[in-house]
């Protein structure tokens, strides 16, 4: 791994009652490649080493200062639109009917690059789980800045930014209906059941969120986990549930807004291609900064085998080897139905942040806030901060690490599609 020297540029905040954390120029920070023009006074061997390191940094899209995550949805969206425009992308916006946390417009934004008639498409999507869009958006913007100019003639890239814009803006994993979008793509004539979740629903989201109720409910949940095992506990809690609308990992009672948008537009976005690669960007599970590729398909299936051929180490959520539980209603599990005549190779790219208990506590606090508290009240800033910390690490070293992994995965997908 090449280490590149960097310094952090600090933008001045815009003054204003609701914009103290919004950076100048909507959070856009210009990038500069590492240069080699000032090496005359270095020994010859040192000059050669620096030049080699510089070329490695530039080829990886690394720059002379550390990138940072945007602090608001509006800043991330502005950055994405700006870099997509500079890259020459065709941009489309699909407004959401609701406003964001700061009253801003919300939308799913789509950038497309390459020949519209290309037979291959790479589909990059962020914010399926809203708050996870801070990392996903940063990676999409990085790709537009550092890789768009290298796109081959036989492949088009479609980038969907902010699939769940309400969750993105409000710093929530779920959408405007408290629905986990990746549990919403089920057969609604016979939705799954999860009776075991009902037995602990009131412990997961209690009526009050005092220190005493947190301690008592968390202790009781850990007792349940000890009895049934952590793997089964994760499956019960996070696999998806459809009977407790104010709970966590709730799949809803029918197709939600983002679900309906995908069903309406996905076919048009990838047409007329016959081969599609999909990378769905996620955070919150696994070791810090590690990017695990997760397939919804069983080991040995054609789709799984293609993904393993493209990327190597791909974990099936069906096998029990992934950091993810086996899910009900994830959107990638429905993609073959949405695109029946297309060869699809897909994976979720899941980046680790903090430990799983911290993630669970953040989700519980958020669910309590929106079910029994006041989402704009005194408790809300601290809980949003807790949720962001669980899914978006603001350490520039974490962003650098996940970007390096994303470069590997996206480059490999483009190479496979070009074959």
Structure description:
The chain is built from 13 helices and eight strands. The chain has 419 residues and is of the alpha/beta class. The protein has an eight-stranded mixed sheet with strand order 1-2-4-3-5-8-6-7, sandwiched between helices. Helix 2 runs parallel beside helix 3 (133-146), helix 3 crosses helix 13 (396-418) and helix 11 runs antiparallel to helix 12 (380-391). Residues 1-64 have low confidence and may be disordered.
pLDDT < 50 stretches: 1-64
Largest sheet: 8 strands, mixed
Q: Report the C-alpha radius of gyration, rounded.
A: 22 Å
> What order do the strands of the largest sheet run in, or round the barrel if closed?
1-2-4-3-5-8-6-7
- The outline comes out as globular
Oligomer: single chain
The total strand number stands at 8
Order of helices and strands: HHEEEHEHHHHHEEHEHEHHH
Distance between the termini: 27 Å
Number of continuous helical runs: 13
The chain-level mean pLDDT equals 86
Portion in strands: 15-25%
Write the layout of secondary structure elements.
Layout: H1 44-59, H2 73-86, E1 90-99, E2 105-113, E3 120-125, H3 133-146, E4 155-161, H4 165-170, H5 195-204, H6 211-228, H7 230-238, H8 257-270, E5 275-288, E6 291-295, H9 302-311, E7 314-316, H10 335-338, E8 343-352, H11 356-372, H12 380-391, H13 396-418
Parallel strand pairs: 3-4, 3-5, 5-8, 6-7
Antiparallel strand pairs: 1-2, 2-4, 6-8
């Amino acid at each position: 791994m090449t280490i590149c020297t960097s310094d952090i540029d600090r933008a001045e905040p815009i003054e204003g009652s609701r914009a103290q954390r919004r950076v100048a120029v909507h959070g856009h920070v210009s990038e500069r490649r590492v240069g080699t023009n000032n090496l005359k006074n270095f020994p010859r061997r040192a000059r050669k080493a620096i030049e080699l390191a510089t070329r490695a940094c530039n080829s990886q899209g690394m720059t002379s200062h550390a990138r940072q995550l945007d602090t608001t949805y509006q800043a991330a969206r502005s950055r994405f639109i700006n870099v997509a425009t500079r890259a020459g992308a065709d941009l489309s916006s699909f407004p959401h009917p609701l406003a964001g946390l700061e009253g801003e417009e919300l939308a799913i934004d789509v950038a497309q690059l390459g020949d519209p008639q290309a037979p291959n498409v790479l589909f990059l999507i962020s914010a399926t789980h809203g708050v996870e869009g801070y990392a996903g958006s940063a990676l999409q913007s990085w790709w537009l800045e550092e890789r768009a100019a290298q796109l081959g003639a036989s492949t088009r890239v479609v980038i969907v930014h902010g699939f769940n814009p309400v969750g993105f803006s409000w710093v929530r994993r779920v959408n405007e209906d408290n629905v986990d979008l990746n549990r919403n793509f089920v057969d609604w004539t016979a939705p799954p059941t999860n009776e075991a979740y009902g037995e602990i629903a009131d412990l997961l989201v209690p009526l009050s969120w005092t220190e005493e109720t947190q301690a008592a409910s968390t202790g009781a949940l850990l007792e349940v986990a000890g009895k049934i095992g952590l793997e089964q506990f994760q499956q019960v809690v996070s696999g998806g549930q459809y009977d407790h609308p104010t709970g966590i990992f709730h799949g809803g009672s029918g197709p939600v807004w983002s679900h309906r948008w995908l069903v309406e537009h996905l076919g048009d976005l990838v047409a007329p291609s016959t081969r599609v690669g999909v990378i769905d960007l996620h955070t919150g599970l696994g070791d810090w900064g590690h990017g695990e590729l997760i397939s919804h398909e069983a080991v040995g299936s054609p789709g799984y085998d293609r993904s393993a051929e493209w990327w190597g180490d791909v974990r099936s959520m069906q096998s029990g080897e992934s950091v993810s539980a086996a899910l009900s209603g994830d959107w990638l599990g429905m993609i073959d139905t949405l695109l029946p005549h297309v060869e699809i190779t897909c994976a979720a790219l899941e980046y680790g942040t903090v430990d799983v208990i911290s993630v669970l506590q953040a989700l519980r606090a958020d669910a309590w806030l929106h079910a029994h508290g006041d989402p704009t009240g005194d408790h809300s800033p601290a809980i949003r901060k807790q949720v962001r910390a669980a899914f978006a690490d603001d350490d520039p070293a974490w962003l650098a690490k996940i970007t390096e992994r994303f470069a590997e995965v996206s480059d490999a997908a483009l190479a496979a599609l070009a074959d």
